[in-house]
Fold:
Amino acid sequence: MRSVDPLEDTSPAPDDRTTRARIRDSAISCFAKHGVADTTVRKVAAAADVSPGSVIHHFGSMEGLRLACDQQVAAAIRDRKGEALSSGPQLDMLASLRSAEYGSLAAYLAQVLAEDSPAVAKLVDDLVADAEVYLGQGVDSGMLRPTDDPRGRAAIVALWSLGALVLHRHMDRLLGVDLTNPDVAADPAFLNYLRPAVEVMGTGLFTDAFAAQAKESLDPPGETDQ
Amino acid sequence: MRSVDPLEDTSPAPDDRTTRARIRDSAISCFAKHGVADTTVRKVAAAADVSPGSVIHHFGSMEGLRLACDQQVAAAIRDRKGEALSSGPQLDMLASLRSAEYGSLAAYLAQVLAEDSPAVAKLVDDLVADAEVYLGQGVDSGMLRPTDDPRGRAAIVALWSLGALVLHRHMDRLLGVDLTNPDVAADPAFLNYLRPAVEVMGTGLFTDAFAAQAKESLDPPGETDQ
DNA sequence: TAGGATATTGAACATGCGTTCAGTCGATCC
DNA sequence: GGATCGACTGAACGCATGTTCAATATCCTA
Structure:
């Protein structure tokens, strides 16, 4: 496995990837940097040092290239799934997406998560399913509170975190935290995000009285056996 | 004020908006429906029943049109600010964005919130500032817990909610809740979102012991006067 | 080594985009 | 009535896009 973003690799080691892999990895970086709409076949070709025709030859179309990138990113995340599951709940819920293999992984996700794409939909579904498992492990180990709705909770927590990633520009501007930066965990400013997030995750936002009132308004007594 | 989305207005009442306003409102609906990249001047012109040249005549460029739409949406939200501030904290944090004026408002935001646009940045900054105020009111009224970092908390809560809106497709697929639907509050499935959200906001996710441990790992004793 | 298969190229194509522009029309003013 | 202005049109323009394609290069196998 390469330890830096392929596009930023300046080492003299020969590139042992196939042209196809090189193109695909360059495309991931381009999509991450320019966004989906502004990434053209010519930009990808230039980044991979091939011709536009070669890009189309390998992937059939830009659409095919996008699909291949989605699938590659999903595979990279899947490869780290065991690691996430074995490390249990973390304060930084996006940690497992800061892959050492693709420095652009988080930035790529930030660009594609809101796209209407079956591959991305599957990726998110898998991430939520994984979250449900490791949140369950957290309950078993006494770190997390039990819930009547493990799946709903996992979906909410995962989509909040992923949504924050998609809105990384605003997070950066407001709290000085760049969630697409693979090394954000080493940035002291990261605490600006972690502290309030952990506060909400730790004690909630509502007072006990208001929380009880809110819960009752959603599930009035006598209707608890739905 | 019109009470339905302009594009969906089938009443025979004469349209008293200027052509400029009609075009702008049609554009908001187009951006909401097709996204920013796939909304062309010809689509907007067709929706507004004018020529493409007329669109450009009024707004100078597609970029000018986008800016006008951002500003109009921001104004519509600003108009509802007093209402949000006077109603205090709500279980549904996106309620103030379900404008009766624009059925497409939430869907428009879902499309543009991740765009790199100064107008959108300002809009989000304003929303966070508003959130800080009404969360503060919630603390004063005893509904919400006090915090050492009102601004950080407001940013997190707002960006989580807005992020969930941006990822509305996944939310819909996973929990059957369409957050861009202006009438989602009347949909029984909305509880699928509210229950886990209120649970996390109510009691948090972490157990008391883990929350204390987590807080201490972020702010070790002896370093509390930062 | 020859031949077939595959990879790659750079030019060209077809299409659609945002924008420009000359002309028309209606309203207003002198 | 004529001049001016603003609104609007539809055709055309200049440009960029994704894709196609014929020619060439490279690789692999018998």
